[in-house]
Design goal:
By secondary structure, this protein is of the alpha+beta class. The chain is 36% helix and 37% strand. The protein has seven helices and 16 strands. The strands form four sheets. Strands 1, 6, 7, 8, 15 and 16 form a six-stranded antiparallel beta sheet that branches. Strands 2-3-4-5 form a four-stranded antiparallel beta sheet, with no helix packed on it. A four-stranded antiparallel beta sheet has the order 9-10-13-14, with no helix packed on it. Strand 3 and strand 4 form a beta hairpin. Helix 2 runs antiparallel to helix 5, helix 4 runs antiparallel to helix 5 and helix 5 runs antiparallel to helix 6. The two termini are 49 Å apart.
Length: 343
């Protein structure tokens, strides 16, 4: 047992592992540059479940990741054993408290690494969540939780690209506000380990303006609307290339918007189909005529929603590591890289 302990406590093992980790990581970096499409998808996955499934099918491209996981595991054991070994000697010999400062850095590293491990095993990553301004969408894998986009502020130019970003969101649990905040560049809003990132933005039709019987009606897609006489209707499915089959059932001949129609449903679940190819088109049903007057254009944001169960461990570990570095640099006396001024 003592031989095993001495092996993992060896500084030579630390140096060797650090060197090999750098070599493997460098080789992996070359592969990521050569096959960017393959590795781009990895950013959207939880690491260990992916390695246990898809990773085994592509070993020529993923072998270095398995090697890196193994090497980092050895490096972690080496760090823990070294830290315990040194701390025991410091306490036993009653050395100054400053002697513990380097090991505070090690503790911070270990805590942060535990956080990364938790995030590589559990949680979820959901891309492409489109939220219209003023609208809301459910948060994946979080029953009862929705995110609402209140406003966006974006500044940039063709020369400089995106310079400033602020997306104000509100999180609601079963309709009750639980948190509000601003998503900024590299600054997500975090709620109970769920992080909300801004990926993209734009404008898109979010509904249509109809006229019927002389009144204007604004109707959002996939929502209900009412006329002034109290009748209730709803907008249903959009067919990009509308057609009817032999039984009179609607379908889309292609994904091209060459003949777009939208379904209008009556309270009795009867349907009519309105042409969306241009304004001014109309459809008559249920003793009334619906005419397409305009489209409702709204801003939208595309959010990435990630749950990382280890996020707080990473934050705490990083804080401990930084605190250890500051103590080591400024308060360690003659053995630090920066010396305190002696009065």
């Amino acid at each position: 047992m003592s031989k095993v302990w001495r092996f993992f406590a060896s500084i030579y093992l630390t140096i060797a592992l650090a060197f090999v980790i750098c070599v493997v990581a460098a080789l992996g970096s070359l592969l990521t540059m050569k096959y960017p499409r393959f590795y781009r998808g990895l950013d959207h996955e939880i690491l260990f479940p992916w390695l246990a499934d898809e990773g085994l099918k592509h070993l020529p491209l993923t072998g270095w990741i398995y090697a890196l996981v193994f090497l980092v595991s050895l490096f972690t054991i080496n760090t823990v054993v070294c830290t315990l070994d040194k701390v025991f000697l410091i306490l036993k010999s009653k050395r100054p408290v400053q002697s513990l400062f380097p090991h505070i850095v090690h503790v911070g590293f270990f805590i942060a690494l535990l956080g990364h491990l938790a995030g590589s095993v559990g949680g979820f990553r959901s891309q492409g969540n489109v939220v219209f301004k003023g609208g809301s969408v459910p948060v994946p894998n979080a029953p009862g939780l929705t995110v609402r986009l209140n406003e966006m502020e974006i500044k940039g130019s063709e020369e400089q690209g995106l310079e400033y970003l602020r997306s104000n969101i509100t999180l609601l649990k079963d309709g009750v506000e639980v948190k509000a905040g601003d998503i900024e560049m590299n600054g997500p809003v975090i709620y109970k380990g769920i992080a909300f990132y801004h990926l993209d933005q734009g404008t898109s039709p979010a509904g249509i303006v109809l006229s019927s019987g002389g009144e204007a009606i604004e109707a959002d897609f996939d929502a209900s609307f009412a006329t002034s006489d109290g009748a209730s209707f709803s907008l249903g499915e959009i067919y990009p290339d509308f057609a009817l089959d032999a039984d009179g059932k609607p379908f889309s001949r292609s994904n091209d918007f060459s003949n777009p129609h939208i379904e209008i449903r009556s309270p009795g679940n009867e349907t009519a189909f309105l042409d969306l190819s241009r304004t001014g088109t109309s459809v008559r049903a249920w003793n009334r005529t619906f005419t397409l007057e305009d489209f409702i254009i709204k801003e939208y944001a595309v959010l990435a929603i990630h749950k990382d169960p280890g996020i707080w461990l990473i934050i705490v570990g990083s804080g401990v590591l930084v605190a250890g570095m500051l103590l080591l640099l400024f308060l360690r006396g003659d053995r630090g890289e920066l010396l305190r001024q002696r009065g």
